[in-house]
Amino acid sequence: MEIKLTGNEDAREIFRLRTAGDKVFLVSRKTLLRLIERFVGGEVDAKQVEGYADAVEVMDDVENEDGYEELIATILFQLSSPEINGSLTPDEVERILGLLRK
Question: How much is the pTM?
Answer without folding.
Answer: 0.83
